[in-house]
């Protein structure tokens, strides 16, 4: 009995804490900011994303690059000293959760995504002159399978499918007569069924009457590898992939 | 008072006034007492989750099948071999329900795809927490003695590491952490034994300090001790946060105890007449591919280059000119086990490179340091500090023994009971928190803590924590057959004179041979089956790269003809693949039209030009090696075997296995072997 009682006590406190945080989060979206330590010295009217959006990270871990947003005024000039708050769904955390813009009008935060593999819609909010101004930011967290896919894609596929070059990995994209699509290109890849994707990866371009420049990987990668690659392609698709077929929605 | 007594007696009368009535009331009480247990269950947390689950699936199209699989009551996964008694699925009801992929409400989400069946492994093995508990609080958040709260997702890979001692492709964070335990020298002080009894070995090669006075000055040692990262941002040497006096005394002892290195008698010293050619410095540095191993900070503050050797941004501040010259001539004289090759530079090249490197210095670095000559007491104090701080756990230091078991062993740190941990005030009481805080700021746990301050990114700290959390008691208790062993380095050593050459050239720093060596360059265990003699001789004389897109490349060593022959002979004779039969060369008898057929296969059926170049005018593929002269490089037997199954010859290569027929492989081999180097070099194969 005693055991149970103590357990409940700890649970009680942590629930309370969690409840308080949850209550505080949406609260500050609308009302006056709870971050009393930060005194805004200026206000802007426009929020723009500088960098750090559209990253692909891993569940529960910090994204590689920080998220940077900029506050501007009506004339597009950067506003230093404006307050920016960052919000996300449950499980997302920001360090810091609110910041004042620096000398160049930018506020920077490090983002840790939740434990669930998904696309996360985050927002940055600045009080603005008349009404709060907000900016939507999208980040993606990969789960185990999708990440295995991303590692495989990096090793086997990206040299051709990603036109971006770095000194460590020179892209082969420009050298190909027929151009492959980047795996993020949802407008094309979302139209291909899982069966078609499997078939072109296993047997190469000719399997779908496409160019043989796309090699077959059926004897190189395992069935689980191919599934992981497809899960990855689906996870990073932009616009997002909506699975077709049986959808068990409410009656 | 009177009134109360009256009420009581009338109540008594009403309940137990006559035997029948009394019997009825007693049975009612009994019934109620019996109902407590079911009621308790009914109002328990898990029961309310099960009701919620039923409500959730009620309206769904797949409700009948979901309901059929739903089992009311407490569920339990019992796996005695793994020590698992998990009741998590009592509330987490949708884990195995593929059709619940669209449900995001916890605790009913489907489990993401992982390589293991949930029923076969249970939950706590990866997630931690209390599997037997039936309330959320106890299962997820317990901090009681002998219990642990659930593991935050960011360290989830540590779960894999309990059984998988080898590097898995899907656990980059764990793999990085494990590499870092060796690379940052953690295991010099903290012993880490894997469950199979093998030890994690250090890979950082800390330099000997036995001859430190030959190499550098006391002032440099002092500034280095004060802040290693100020000299080289990328160094793995931690900061001991020493006071000026302490750093001064330690530097004094090191200088005092240093003994001059015996001079190298084998190599002739650089004649003073040799003049450096300053203009040739950068190109010689580039051609020698020093940057494959050594980094230098560029103007933008970014490190460019590898991390196998020390950063050279300010080498001029550190190295004494005579030492640098002698090192470039033959590094093995100063350090017999250094990963640095002996390049066989000419005296002029040595002078040129030394001048070039000496110029890499920062006039601000260490300026304004004046160290007074140390008194015997100060020197003795320096030695005392060296012993206390355990410097000799990493470095060879004259007059100080290497300490044994200097710091706590970490072989089961992942199961350290919370009760044994002194947490910092305000810190959430979890093991991962403790480990991360300890790595991030060891001295926050008390000024007498000896563990130094490492310079690590948040991702590196998390990786280290993951590797440490994987070292659990459960992992050690596991039956051997459930464990996947680490692939240990062999202690392969090439033999004879060629073996000595291979050691001098430090080939194993980059290449792997028979299970030992680096991973920067190709595994050469079967190189002898792969290449032709003339090509190998030419390549060792002047390595031209096969992959223009690589930035790390084979350096050029000034090998003389006899050394070159010795190496070539050895490689061709010893590094032979057992699966390739050189006598079965499939091309010799091929009709000439096989070449034409092979060409067609190359360009149309297999579209090899997407990755390779045969004809520089038309082909542009940039992923695999250039094949313009492949007929003068590879043996036909190797080319054929490679086409049939590349992964059999080089596991993990990205060249896809095309499941080629023997005929196709033969024709392609014929085509490839027809691509000869101009001038007929190697054509005599």
Describe this protein with a few key phrases:
heterodimer, A: 251 residues, alpha+beta, Cytochrome Bc1 Complex, Chain D, domain 2, five-stranded mixed beta sheet, four-stranded antiparallel beta sheet, 5 helices, 9 strands, 30% helix, elongated, disordered N terminus, B: 685 residues, mainly alpha, two-stranded antiparallel sheet, 32 helices
Explain the overall architecture:
The complex is a heterodimer of chains A (251) and B (685). Mean pLDDT of chain A is 84; it is low at 1-34. In chain A, strands 2-9-8-4-6 form a five-stranded mixed beta sheet. In chain A, strands 1-3-7-5 form a four-stranded antiparallel beta sheet, with no helix packed on it. Chain A folds into two domains: 16-142, Immunoglobulins (Immunoglobulin-like); 144-236, Cytochrome c-like domain (Cytochrome Bc1 Complex, Chain D, domain 2), CATH 1.10.760. The two termini of chain A are 44 Å apart. With 251 residues, chain A is an alpha+beta fold. Chain A contains five helices and nine strands. By secondary structure, chain B is an all-alpha fold. Chain B folds into five domains: 2-39, no CATH class; 45-150, no CATH class; 172-203 and 410-482, Cytochrome Bc1 Complex, Chain D, domain 2 (Orthogonal Bundle), CATH 1.10.760; 212-358, Cytochrome Bc1 Complex, Chain D, domain 2 (Orthogonal Bundle), CATH 1.10.760; 495-685, Cytochrome Bc1 Complex, Chain D, domain 2 (Orthogonal Bundle). Chain B has helices spanning 2-16, 19-42, 45-58, 63-69, 118-121, 124-127, 136-141, 157-163, 172-183, 186-189, 212-215, 218-226, 228-231, 244-257, 281-287, 315-318, 321-329, 331-334, 347-358, 376-389, 431-440, 458-469, 473-477, 496-504, 527-530, 533-541, 561-574, 593-605, 630-633, 636-644, 646-649, 662-673; strands spanning 77-79, 84-86, 295-297, 303-305, 512-513, 516-517. In chain B, the strands form three sheets. Chain B has a two-stranded antiparallel ribbon with strand order 1-2. The longest helix of chain B has 24 residues, at 19-42. The N and C termini of chain B lie far apart (122 Å). The chains are: A alpha+beta (251), B mainly alpha (685). Chains A and B meet through helix 1, helix 2 and helix 5 of A and helix 7 and helix 22 of B.
